[in-house]
Amino acid sequence: MPRMRAQLVAVLLLIGVNAAGCGEDECPVCSPCPHWGALTVEDAVSSGPVPGATVVGASVTWTCADSGGVTRCTTAEQLPVEPVSLEVAAPGYASKAVVLTPAGGEVDACGCASCVTYSPSTVALARAP
Questions:
Q1: Which of 88, 92, 95, 129 is most buried by its number of CB atoms within 10 A?
Q2: What are the pLDDT digits (tens) for 112-127?
């Protein structure tokens, strides 16, 4: 009986060590997780696309395109992992100041960071008076 108890304790310890986190030999190669900007710009009334939408800010270049009934604005460069101030505008619409706030990026026991997302992901523009 003591031998079975010792084996059980050894198995439980082994499971506990493996479940506790990554040891130096068990860590995977961290997957890159870029943090590009992505923003949907929509009409505040119709929720449709906003032709000619532009986004300026965060010291990166934004490109906007209408596709599939929505206007999507994205960056080719990565955003900093901190709140970023943007100005969203379009002809015939009132411009809107937006602050994108990052979430995620936590580092696990292996030193790998989770993906960073930004919110809000949608901005509604009202028509100019």
A1: 88
A2: 888 888 999 999 999 9
